[in-house]
Design goal:
The complex is a heterodimer of chains A (954) and B (511). Chain A has 30 helices and 34 strands. Chain A has 954 residues and is an alpha/beta fold. Chain A has a 7-stranded mixed sheet, with helices on both faces. In chain A, strands 30-32-31-34-29-33 form a 6-stranded mixed sheet. A 5-stranded parallel sheet of chain A has the order 18-17-16-19-20. The longest helix of chain A has 25 residues. Chain B is of the alpha/beta class. Chain B has 22 helices and 16 strands. Chain B has a 5-stranded mixed sheet with strand order 2-1-3-4-5, covered by helices on one side. The chains are: A alpha/beta (954), B alpha/beta (511). Chains A and B meet through α2 of A and α17, α18, α19 and α20 of B. Chain B: Keywords: 4Fe-4S, Iron, Iron-sulfur, Metal-binding. Chain B: This is NADH-quinone oxidoreductase subunit F. Chain B: Belongs to the complex I 51 kDa subunit family. Chain B: Pfam families: Complex1_51K, NADH_4Fe-4S.
């Protein structure tokens, strides 16, 4: 028989992966499924759809609703098909008169305690209870409706995005189980027992005040309208849908945009998405309202100077103005006085076009991307050691990890859907090591064993990785066979001798790192001997003066212990932005053409010159910080910034602002009047991910399709804008659809050789490399060899950062982000996510606060050698004494006013994670000098913008 | 010569004043200058005679009871130390009391004779005889022995114990568990409590043997929270068993390990259902788990687990000690061995009656129970706890074995027998059954959660005469739905008493 897996279909219970196949007979049809599959799932494979309510295939069978009962030959009674595993030769009947009666009678009980308001119910048309009542043929409720019931239960509308209406609840526990099994938060429970059983967020609390993280898994799981999106309550059921990819973090979740016309009614996680398997977080699931926020830029605008109001103009005028001014600047200051920044928020195709514009139309290599400030050390470090600038695994690999080591990352906040997957694996028994100055939530995973926390001093990563490696090589924990077969022997011996030196021992490094030697030894042993050891890391690794060194140190450790090249292991950067992997892949670096091909290699350049029909500059261009320096020095005069808010996100804000002010031309292509746009001369209104076609590449190298669900508010998709600008500059670009851009990318970047939109549609997604060798992509890399042949271990000498505490600046500031807000907050601040985080605060250990007489909630001045700002303090034992923490989601917080110009020695990735500061109590409404200037400038620029918009309406 | 007097230290006796009686006897002896040793034994299970005071003589132990405080002086006056004396409470030799003499006490052979926590007493009466044999046998031989004995689970489901153990023995796992279901909650039952209070080492020995048989090194006793005395005595016994080397790293010198601890229950009837019990033992809400997977394969903390009732484990030492055949020789057809019945309700002589399977219910009620305490005729008997069917007098000749009961739609369950006289209203009793389910349902499955509530409502309508015929039909339909559709026996058996009440006492529904 023919069987298919359709993501749209709910198979009732999860698929099983056993290689042993079982054949059974259901309603006369032979079905063959893996051992361990439920009768319900097996039946669904044969399109025999047994009624069900409590079963759904995102979670394990529960067996409570009793609708899915069947008859099995040789067995007594009516077993539930969801909880009954298939057996060889089993003969099942899914329909009989007895079953029909039983199901109808069970449904009758349900409906005896359910409102009869189907026609006015928000779930009308999308209700499993309704469907099942129809399926079992319920025609009357003999109990009447005057018995005991829950119809007067009070709604909880506290969550901004969904309501909880217990009067509609059938107590199937799908929400409770989703919160536990899928999300791993365990915020929900059933309170009371028997008929009093009710879904609860805990004692005396509502959804928004509970431990709920608003991931939406419960709403997704609810078969009735008990948990229902407010947008559906307000608008009714969507009428069509489109599968697309989330534009928030680097997990790259697939979503179904459920639409009414061109209005998104809701975003529901797509079960067919290989990154998220139907799960979501509060951002992707709910925080899409920014796309139609009143602040959206919808008209191109130009001005001569940033001290004057804007003028709204046509697209043609704006593009021509921008092109003319670019050429004027080049004429005046030289070909290399201009550059462009590609956006890691835009699609692969769009970033490809911007770097191509810079290289082919502007004739230099001054192109860079925000990876500069996040994962550029990953690109460098992994390329040097493993030979490829990308993480080695797919996300699913973590489900085979025995020991998960997380370094400088906070997955449950920053990569929540993958964080949930990690938690699932931890609940299954994998061990956990966390190296982070803060006690991150992953360490508090419910129903998991106790992890090892290495609360390192900020800036001592390399000391730690060397100490870990020291333990591995001196305690005989190496995988000698792997090293002999896969690693360069000379490099290995040099590295081994280095880490074995006594000065790298945990004992001698303990005081530097701030973690007891025995704890470091325990962690090293656990990672090396667990079986499958997997390392996941984030910006806590890269954003240091030795960021690249640390990345190489991680790769060294993984190779020495043989934890590379199979599922369950690997070196995995958790990418921050939706398409930061992609923007890097697309040649957004000043020294690399698409596919990480060096621009100073004449052969490579020659191929591109043929493809692009121009001669290309051989000398690598400027990196972002160098563009700023050159701007201040008067050598760099014009910038084209695609969807990146460098004025808020880059370090040492005052330095960035000075650079932007010194430009003669700043072209900003963005969806909002962001901080950078306030310094601009041309605004080209961009489009959100909902308004365009293209692809994003997530942290596991997975290329996912982005599909347009609504027309661009300003009329153009971002690739069309760049194309228009190129054409106006006299360099022809003639793409009719992003698929044609991808075809071009495939022709120039070898690791994308076999990628096409047709193939993406066919496979759903592709993990590069995708070429003749790996025609359907490659989930796990380096299985047989490295792209550079043998893996290269690199000596990683620990060199302390120059940013050290002093009497004046006795504390270390480190920065990061939280679950509900995203990066510079441009999107999430324009949604109800502000309910959870309406301002950035300074987390400080109570001991440090007490020393400074600082109370919880009190405004404090944070001063560094670079600048100062004022935030409210939050006393938190998550911090270690001596270390403070803040986020940078709100521009007026000025987190980056404090951060310094220090950066990674190899890639110039800023040292965001270590800034020596002093914290002191402040007055109630105090503002720093910078904040006062910021507010004044912002007010002025908003007036200028308003003036431009008014002109239009006049 | 020292006068040895036995005053039970057991919940029933204590609730009837045994503690004060013991104190008064000691004082009276002091006053009279009598050299006395008071031994706090367990109860013999002849509850209508509690507090049952015994004196030791050369011919044996003579019983007096029920002893109230006012009786103490007169016992001394009568010279009760001689045993065979004239006194209104004199019962003669305890073991000759017909109620006790006519029983077949195998599991309860030691009950009430000894100081429950005295290891010497236990050993002197064949204690650890089974374990001593077990340590020299292979795991498979132990399981085979239990299989041959024909022992079936005494908690109510009557599943063959040996087969369950075989499943656990065959399962490969890093850790296996032995869990004792001591959450005795059926109305009118107390046999588990008696074992734990009056012969705790027997349970401990049974669990150790079970551990040896299946390869488990950790045992838990999930004890009903409302059994404080059992808790105290079990813990004392476990402590002494550790000290004496019966528990720990080197049980009975065998070099093998078994650890045991008592966990207090969560105070819910449903936690006596084995999968709820496991959830509760894991620290979660007591919610029923769907089966499969069977606890024997995927039980406590996901590991292979033997879950047996107290009485099942309690039967093990004698099976090992005396041999499988000895045990299997008791009983009737597929119901081998003995069952400790617990007589309660409206009866003259409540208490524990251990009998081989296959005797008549009628004899249990009249020969042992002595008919109703009220003197009125018996109208109904509920066997097997609150989920057991009500039997009417014309069914009293049914044989006491699993299959005979099953044939008439009834269950033996845990052996509880509750007797009602003619004043009972069986419609009210049927309503009570549904109400009990409303109270105690875990709420997981629909037929039980909602069905029980509707059951009460429908019975109320029937009693009120509201559309009676249609509602009786609806009630029968509901009962079938609960039986066929419920996840566990709670909802699946609640209709048994309801249906039996409807069938055998229809007149009560037409008032």
């Amino acid at each position: 028989m023919v069987e298919h897996f359709y993501p749209e279909k709910d198979y009732g219970t999860p698929a099983r992966l056993s290689e042993k196949l079982i054949t059974l007979n259901i309603d006369g049809i032979e079905v063959t499924v893996p051992e361990g599959t439920s009768v319900m799932h097996a039946a669904a494979r044969a399109d025999i759809n047994i009624p069900k309510l409590c079963a759904t295939d995102s979670m394990e069978a529960f067996g409570s609703c009793r609708l899915c009962t069947v008859e099995i030959e040789g067995r007594r009674g009516y077993p539930a098909s969801c909880t009954t595993p298939v057996e060889q030769g089993m003969v099942v009947r899914s329909q009989s008169q007895a079953l029909a009666k039983l199901r109808r009678n069970v449904m009758e009980l349900y409906i005896s305690d359910h409102p009869l308001d189907c026609l006015t119910c928000p779930s009308n048309g999308d209700c499993e209870l309704q469907d099942m009542a129809g399926a079992v043929g319920l025609r009357e409720v003999r109990y009447g409706f005057d018995g005991e019931n829950h119809l007067d239960s009070v709604k909880d509308e506290s969550n901004p995005y969904f309501t909880f209406d217990p009067s509609k609840c059938i107590v199937c526990s799908r929400c409770v189980r989703a919160c536990g099994e899928v999300q791993g938060t365990f915020a929900l429970t059933i309170e009371g027992r028997g008929f009093d059983s009710k879904v609860s967020t805990g004692k005396d609390t509502n959804f928004v005040d509970s431990a709920c993280v608003s991931c939406g898994a419960c709403v997704q799981a609810c078969p009735t309208s008990t948990l229902m999106e407010k947008s559906v309550i307000d608008n009714g059921q969507p009428e069509h849908s489109v599968i697309t990819t989330c534009a928030y973090c680097g997990v790259g979740c697939s979503f179904k945009a459920e639409m009414k016309g061109d209005q998104v009614i809701r975003m529901t996680p797509w079960k067919g998405g290989s990154a998220n398997h139907g799960h979501s977080c509060v951002k992707g699931r709910f925080a899409f309202g920014y796309a139609t926020h009143k602040d959206r830029l919808t008209k191109p605008m130009i001005r001569q100077s940033i001290d004057e109001p804007w003028t709204e103009v046509s697209w043609e005028e704006a593009i021509n103005f921008a092109a003319r001014r670019l050429r004027e600047v080049q004429d005046k200051h030289g070909r290399k006085s201009v550059g462009g920044i590609t956006s890691s928020r835009c699609t692969n195709e769009e970033t490809y076009l911007v770097q191509k514009l810079v290289r082919a139309a502007l004739g230099n290599n001054n192109t860079d991307t925000c990876a500069r400030v996040c994962h550029s050390p990953t690109g460098y470090g992994l390329k040097m050691t493993l030979g490829e600038s990308a993480g080695t695994q797919d996300f699913d690999s973590v489900m085979q990890a025995d020991c998960i080591m997380v370094i400088g990352a906070n997955p449950t906040d920053a990569h929540p859907v993958f964080g949930s997957m990690m938690r699932k694996r931890l609940r299954e028994g994998a061990s956990l090591i966390v190296a982070d100055p803060r006690h991150i939530d992953l360490l508090e995973t419910p129903h998991a064993g106790e992890g090892i926390h290495l609360p390192i001093r900020p800036g001592t990563n390399v000391a730690l990785i060397n100490a870990l490696a020291h333990v591995v090589v001196t305690e005989g924990l190496e995988d000698e066979a792997f090293v002999a077969e896969r690693c360069d022997p000379d490099d290995y011996l040099i590295w081994r001798a280095f880490v074995a030196e006594q000065r790298n021992s945990p004992e001698l490094m303990a005081d530097v790192i701030g973690v007891p030697a025995e704890t470091i030894r325990r962690a090293a042993r656990q990672y090396a001997t667990a079986g499958n050891g997997a390392i996941y890391y984030g910006l806590g690794v890269t954003e240091h003066s030795q960021g690249s060194t640390m990345v190489m140190g991680i790769a060294n450790l993984a190779m020495a212990t043989g934890n590379i090249g199979r599922p369950g292991v690997g070196v995995n950067p958790l990418r921050g932005q939706n398409n930061v992997q992609g923007s890097c892949d697309m040649g957004s670096f000043p020294h690399e053409l698409p596919g990480y091909q060096p621009v100073n290699d004449a052969g490579v350049r020659g191929q591109f010159e043929v493809a692009w029909g121009v001669s290309l500059e051989a000398e690598p261009g400027l990196r972002i910080p160098h563009m700023f320096d050159a701007a201040i020095a008067g050598q760099f005069k014009a910038m084209y910034v695609q969807g990146e808010d460098i004025a808020q996100s880059d370090p040492n804000t005052q330095h960035v602002e000075a650079a932007l002010r010194s430009l003669e031309l700043l072209i900003v292509q963005d969806i909002f009047l962001n901080e950078t746009a306030k310094f601009a001369h041309v605004i080209l209104p961009g489009s959100t991910f909902l308004e365009k076609n293209g692809t994003f590449t997530n942290a596991e190298r997975r290329i996912n399709r982005v599909r347009k669900v609504m027309p661009p508010l300003a009329g153009k998709e971002d690739w069309e804008i760049t194309m228009a600008l190129a054409n106006a500059l006299g360099y022809p670009m003639r793409y009719r659809h992003p698929s044609e851009i991808m075809d071009e990318i495939a022709s120039v970047a070898p690791s994308f050789a076999n990628v096409s939109y047709d193939k993406l549609d066919e496979l759903g997604s592709i993990q590069w490399p995708c070429n003749d060798e790996h025609p359907e992509g490659m989930p796990v890399m380096h299985t047989d060899s490295f792209p550079i042949g043998r893996g290269r271990m690199v000596v990683t000498e620990f060199i302390p950062t120059t940013e050290q505490v002093s009497e004046t600046y006795p504390l270390l500031l480190t920065t990061g982000r939280i679950l509900s807000q995203y990066n510079v907050g441009a999107q999430t601040r324009r949604t109800d996510n502000n309910v959870w985080h309406s301002e950035d605060v300074l987390e400080i250990h109570p001991h440090d606060a007490q020393l400074r007489d600082i109370a919880d909630g009190q405004p404090v001045t944070i001063a560094s050698r670079t600048g100062s700002t004022v935030l409210k303090a939050r006393l938190s034992k998550r911090m270690q004494p001596g270390v403070v923490y803040t986020t940078f989601h709100f521009p007026h917080s000025g987190a980056n006013v404090i951060t310094t110009d220090n950066s990674d020695w190899a890639t110039n990735c800023p040292e965001y994670k270590v800034t020596a500061v002093q914290v002191s109590g402040s007055d109630a409404h105090a503002l720093s000098d910078w904040q006062q200037k910021f507010y004044a400038f912002t007010r002025e620029q908003l007036d200028f913008h308003e003036a431009g918009s008014k002109q239009d309406s006049d | 010569m020292t006068l040895r007097v036995y005053v039970p230290y057991e919940t029933t006796a204590l609730s009837l004043g045994a503690e004060q009686v013991a104190t008064l006897i000691r004082r009276e002896a002091e006053r009279r200058g009598v050299d006395i040793e008071i031994i706090r034994n367990g109860s013999r299970g002849l509850f209508w005679l509690e507090p049952l005071v015994e004196v030791e003589t050369d011919e044996g132990r003579y019983g007096f009871g029920p002893v109230e405080l006012d009786d103490v002086a007169s016992l001394f006056d009568a010279g009760f130390e001689r045993g065979a004396v004239e006194h209104p409470l004199a019962l003669g030799l305890t073991e000759q009391i017909p109620y006790l003499k006519n029983q077949q006490r195998v599991t309860f052979a030691r009950i009430g004779i000894t100081d429950p926590v005295s290891l010497d007493d236990y050993r002197s009466l064949d204690g650890f005889k089974g374990l001593d044999k077990a340590v020299s046998l292979s795991a498979q031989a132990l399981v085979d022995c239990v299989k041959e004995s024909g022992l079936r689970g005494r908690g109510g489901a009557a599943f063959p114990t040996g087969i369950k153990w075989q499943t656990v023995l065959d399962a490969q796992a890093p850790q296996k568990y032995i869990v004792c279901n001591a959450d005795e909650g059926d109305s009118g039952t107390f046999a588990d409590r008696m074992v734990m209070e009056s012969d705790p080492y027997m349970l401990i020995e049974g669990m150790i043997i079970s551990g040896l048989a299946v390869g488990a090194t950790q045992g838990y006793i999930y004890l009903r929270e409302e059994y404080p005395l059992a808790h105290e005595l079990l813990n004392k016994a476990i402590e002494r068993a550790y000290a004496a080397g019966y528990l720990g790293d080197n049980i009975a010198g065998s070099g093998r390990r078994f650890e045991l601890e008592v966990r207090l229950g969560a105070g819910a009837y449903i936690c006596g259902e084995e999968t709820s019990l496991l959830e509760s033992l894991e620290g979660k809400r007591g919610m029923v788990r769907a089966k499969p997977p069977l606890p024997a394969i995927n039980g406590l903390f996901g590991q292979p687990t033997v879950v047996n009732n107290v009485l099942t484990f309690a039967a093990i030492p004698s099976i090992l000690g005396e041999g499988a055949e000895f045990y299997a020789n008791y009983g009737y057809e597929r119901s081998k061995g003995t069952l400790p019945f617990q007589l309660a309700g409206n009866l003259k002589q409540g208490g524990l009656v251990e009998l081989a399977f296959g005797q008549r219910l009628r004899d249990l009620i009249y020969e042992f129970g002595g008919g109703t305490r009220s003197g009125r005729p018996v109208r109904a008997v509920q066997v097997g706890g609150p989920l057991g069917a009500y039997l009417s007098p014309e069914q009293f000749d049914v044989l006491l074995d699993y299959e005979s009961f099953s044939k008439i739609g009834a269950v033996l369950g845990h052996g509880g027998v509750v007797v009602f006289d003619e004043t009972v209203n069986m419609a009210e009793q049927a309503r009570f059954s549904m109400e009990f389910c409303v109270e105690e349902s875990c709420g997981k499955c629909t037929p039980c959660r909602i069905g029980s509530v509707r059951g009460v409502e429908v019975i109320d309508k029937i009693i009120a005469g509201d559309n009676r015929a249609a509602n009786i039909a609806l009630l029968e339909d509901l009962c079938d739905t609960m039986i066929q559709g419920s996840l566990c026996a709670m909802g699946g058996m609640t209709p048994f008493p309801v249906k039996s009440a409807l069938q055998y006492f229809p007149e009560d529904f037409n008032s």
